[in-house]
Every structure is written in C-alpha cells, then in structure tokens.
Amino acid sequence: MNSLHAPAASSAAASADVAAHSLFTPLDGIIGAETDRLDLSRPLDDRTVEAVRTAFRDHHLLVIRNQSLDKERMYRFAELFGPIEGHMIRLSDGSKWDAVHTITNLDAGGNPVAKPFISSNYFWHTDKSFLREPSLLTMLHAVELPPNGGDTQFADMIAAYDALPEDTRRRIDGLKSVQSLEFMRRYTGSAPPTEDDIVAAPPIAHPLVRTHPETRRKSLYIGMYSSHIEGMSEEEGRALLEELLEHATQDRFVRTHRWRHGDLVFWDNRCLLHRATANYEMGKHRRVLMRVVVKGSVPE
Ligand code: SIN
Asked: Which stretches of the chain drop beneath a pLDDT of 70?
C-alpha cells in the first residue's frame, strides 16, 4: 500500500486535493504516483499546476508518462516549484553543467563507458545536502534508455524514521550531522573537490532528523554526504550513520523506478534518498537523461 504523507486537508486546499487525486494514481508500494494525463509541452492552467503541487506534497515522487520535452519546456515546468539551481560539478573538460543538463554513461566522444566520469550518483544521497540550502526537488526526463535496467531507486526517509524503535528516535532527535562534499568524494572514490569548490561549499551541519516544511513529518536526513555527527567521536558518528543508512534503505522503504521512454520523474529531496543503479551493460548501451534541480531552503 502506498503511504501518503499528506497533512490534514483544510477546506481551502480541498479542491486541489480532489484534482490531484483524480489526476495521479498512487504507484504500488511505498511511495509515488503516476499520470499519463498531462502534456507538459504546453503551459498548464493554474488549477492543474495546483493539483500537481498537491500530488507532489502528498506522494513526494511523481511520474509523468509520455513526455517529449526540450530544455526550455523542462525548465519552465520545473520552475513552477521554485527557483532553478545552478551546479558546481565540473565535467572532464572543466566546464560546468547547464541548469538543464544531461546525465549519461557516455565519454567525451559520445560512446558508452562502463565507468562514467561522474559515478557518485550510484550511492544513496539527497541532492546537495552539503549546501546551506540543499535542493528541493530533482527532475529527470528519459531521452535514451538501455534495453533493460538503468533503474533509479528511491528510499522513503519518512517511513524509515517512523519505523525506528522509540529509543533510537529519542537518541537521534536533535542531533546534527555534518554534510561534506570533500567527505563524499572520498567515500565514493571520486576525484577530490577543487580548492574553489571547498571554499564555495564548506562542510555544514544539518539536522539528522529533518522536518518537512509542508507536511511537518519527520524524516532521516542522511546519505553519502553525511560525514559525521556533531559532538560525537568520529567512530561513533560513522557507526550511527551507517546503521541508519542500512535501516533506511531496506527493500521495504525502497521503490525502484524502471524507466520507460518519455518518463518525466521528479522527487522530493527533503524526504527521499535516491541512487542510480548499474544494472545494465553500461559499456555497451547508452543511457541519457535530462536533469534539472529546484533550489530548496535551510533544513529544519
Ligand atoms: C541522480 O542522482 O540525480 C541521477 C540518478 C540516475 O541517474 O538515475
């Protein structure tokens, strides 16, 4: 059964709730809802925008089928949720990603490679948690897919928090974990960040248990950027973070999205972890997704 994280509906929000629930169908399993009843190649009317926002608040992961969007249309749809985020990541030629960019398994010559230049996205994470204002949502649009696999997985951090034993919840409520780009690069075996990147994004402490700004539900805020726990020895903090990550990414909290051509998928980084899955012949088949990210707020 799909678990809804919606707050109690006020009468003012009731009509958006009804529209959202008739537009989107909950996916089987823990999180997410889908629709094939939207055409994002044209601007949406206000009522539909409100319905999509409501469905996003309630399901945290939305799948919109059968789209064919260019960068401009994808940008316009994403900015309905907030300001679009710039990127720090440098590609092998030193350039930075555009606001709407592609993530691929291709080398500079456009050929599929078994180990792409950026491979940290194969580890559980929530986007840009190392920033003061981490990403609100991330949107991917399937452009080219391998014949099988190349899935993306999502883990529900609200359900994971709710399932913790009462004494663990008491132990971790109020703790802060330090999120660090430098730590992530070491943890994932990636190239170290540049001096400029470290200055632009020094390590920052965020609540280990995050409160969703719209639903007020609590969730675990963890993943590959979580380096250690403030006020705890490094060893104890690492052990706690690994224990929480193992708990939170059990099958019962995870949805695997099996991509179809034309899928547009977006998720709430404030309460989900995600990762790419290397379950296809990466050195042989092309996988190209368009990606855009909406900026979020300081976690509370
Ligand atoms: C991401 O981590 O933003 C991308 C996930 C994917 O490639 O499936």
From this structure: 1-13, 89-95
